[in-house]
## 1
Amino acid sequence: MFFLYPLVAVVIWSINSIVSKLSASAIDPSAISFYRWLLALLVLTPFVLPGVWRARQAIKPHLGRLALLGLLGMALYQSLAYYAAHSVSALFMGIIGALIPLLTVLLSVVILRIAPTLGILLGSIISFTGLVWLVSEGNVTQLLSQGLGAGELMMLAASAAYALYGVLTRRWALPLPIWHSLYVQIFFGVLLLLPGFLLAPAVALNLHNLPLVLFAGLFASIIAPFLWIHGVQRLGASTTSIFMNLIPLFTALIAVLFLHEHLHSYHWIGGGLTLAGVILAQRLRTPLTRRKTAGLHRL
């Protein structure tokens, strides 16, 4: 039954792609970004703040890194997705989000000095091919002449920001309890989002956009991470990460059923290649270069 932890988490994150798309016509992107993390911060405060305050001396040396993680994971990632939702479909957002594991692996090669594998090489080529086919809607010539749109670029930047967030989290391995670290990151995220919120033209909450804020702030920001963390603790990081590959599939299903978005052949082909490349990069771990034998026969 432990598999239900990551499974429910990815369902929530898949629904959040739909929420992001719905928010495009209901609330300013800067407003929902700020409200989302402010709500999460307020809900967590009674449970987490006392422990954070007691551990403040241990947290203080890591504030700079926590601030950067808050910028990448809380401020940039979802904010860019909210802005992108004005011009791209929920289907597209789900598929591009599926690139995060592959981008994480590629950044790990550079930042963590992880040895490149055959899976990373082939997976990158296949996923890139799928991405080009998806973005061009099956017309690569048109893409070469017109280039990427703002929404596509923002979704790619959002995915890259979250991938970098994951890599830096692994590299720094901050000696702090998970919820203490997340709470301080969310705090910095709220501070960084405040200027955009104050400059937004319309930030009023109403019956139309309040459910979107509540879902993003409670389910996507607190409940899903809680379930995911428990999944990692019980199933292991490698097994749990496989469930991330289900997000574009769930997103596509929900988008078709509830937003009445249409699945075209380029979605199947581009999305399928993108997902296949991600899985290949995760599973095929044959090293590209062989290390020299440590010991040599003596004459």
## 2
Amino acid sequence: MDESTRYERLLARYRDGDIDRRTFLKMLGLAGMAAGLAGGPFGLLTPREAKAAVEQVRFDGWGGVVSEAFREYAFKPYTRATGIEVVDGTFGGADEYLARVRASQPGEFNIAHLSGVFDYARYDGLGLSTTLDEDNIPNLKLVIETLQKPFRRITDGRLSAVPYDYGTTGIAYNRKYVSDEEARDKGAKLLIDERFKDKIGGWSEWKTRIWYAALQTGQDPNDIEDMDAVWDAVRRHRDLALKYWSSGAELMSLLGEEEIYVTEGWSGRIRALQDQGHDIGYLDPPGGLAWQECLFVIKGSPMAACEELLNFMLEPEVAIAVAEGQNYPPALNPKKVDLGEKVPTLPAFDPSGTLASLNFFDPAYWNDHEGQWSKTFGRVQRGY
């Protein structure tokens, strides 16, 4: 039996409900380890070819439940199927990681789980982008086109990354102390409510702080007219907050341990807390912030191996498993792919596949202001 037939039969068993997703991925990996999947639907290299070409690919992401989902449902099966090891690194913030990349040797960092079109534009502007051979990533045709277009506009039609998931940064609140009705009524201003002094949190990232300050002052975050009012709102939040958090793990700890009652938060992390039994509410207020994440291939990387990994990660059975593990909707178009039962229940999920109701950073606008605004926020954060 050739490998293509073996794969098709295995996939049919999974889709017919004979085996669960975890078993499917395990059996897929075992099949690949035994004989390779050359020429099959994944188009993967055989273990021997992969070994000759490259022994490992480095992938850096956000850690916590997100990295756990990648590790369990994508990296381990991929390594079993190809013989290529995925070196799994993490970072706490986009600026910190970019500094590490810029200080590295070419090829030291390969694929990064970047957040937003903003970061894509930054990496391209610094000469760190690549050109993906899309023929090697056939599953890209399943990805929502709305998520691809902003990247293509930046890099003249080519791609240096594939969109992978999306979510929102909304308002999270402990229902013991904040009702759903109060959260809806106050929206973004819940984050500067003096009633919750020293029980408020917030992400220590300048773009998010400015975005929510714009909402709190009645302005369009992508077209701010009164920055003095915005900085006043940022300072007000700073003075009321217990602390800024710097990672998803810290966000979950602060809310779960009830050190804070109110904060903006990442939709998937809040869903994870809810699944753990915490009575945490979540609200995307009017004008709230949406984002997409991509898998960005950095200049100097082994392109063929990276493209194989990207295509594997976009395979619906893999992408859905990762989405269910990390609680963020995948970039796959729900009009083209059956996303199962859980994904449509996730915060921020758009069943239309258009994402027309979500608000994203305007990358040109925010890149133009990065130098001034990030520097000013650094001073505000220190108490000025």
## 3
Amino acid sequence: MAISPKLLNPGERVVVSTRTHPKALLVPLLALVILLAVGVAFQVLVDHGTSQLVVWALVAAAILWFVVWPALDWRMASYTITNRRLITRHGILTRKGHDIPLSRISDVAYELDLIDRMLGCGTLVISDASTHGQVLLPDIPRVEDTQRRLNELLHELHGGAANLEEGH
């Protein structure tokens, strides 16, 4: 879900727009398979119609809770880096957001474990000058490219400020 252009300030442009890697959907997919297997197994083994309806109702509720809700949560979350700030948005019923001006970011790093390397994603670790200290953005696709682009923006921002000071 890309950020709405209404949320951008005049002169602000999107540099990176992404969401958590689809690997976040593997557990809900596994839950779907298991829940459907339980429902089918109960239907085959138990011949009572009312019991089958109750079990299928429970399976449907579990699918909503363990499959549909996490998939919607994944779909509604976004991470956007503009030429001025880092914008995070998430939530289904209650939307939450966090903006960090690029001028407050002091360090950008990434972490890749073995599975992340195989899937092409990782955790972006952003250190800023706030009370939170670090912001972790887990499972960012092509995290190395994202880190490199963010570092380029920071270099332009800090390099531009240094050039202005030298010019005056």
## 4
Amino acid sequence: MKYRIITHVHTKYSHDSLLPFFLLYNKCIKKSVDYIAITEHNNIKGAVAFRNYCANKGNKIKVIIGEEIMTSEGEIIGLFLNQEIKPFQSPEKTVDEI
């Protein structure tokens, strides 16, 4: 079985995006996306909110809770998170928390 997966998306919950949920959802449906990782900058709020949005639409798109975390040496993306990871830590500490 093949799946269509998008692994790095920001929504209106990141400082560099204005993407509203209805546009993202409609584009995913149009492109037959099965899974999407929402990876906001330093928070998981958008991922959790989009997961709830998709649930209200019948769970046609599965949301992977992610975060693009700023470390002391650059950014790291964490996927399948249950809680936010504190930014500006060392890369090693960040990976340990993921």
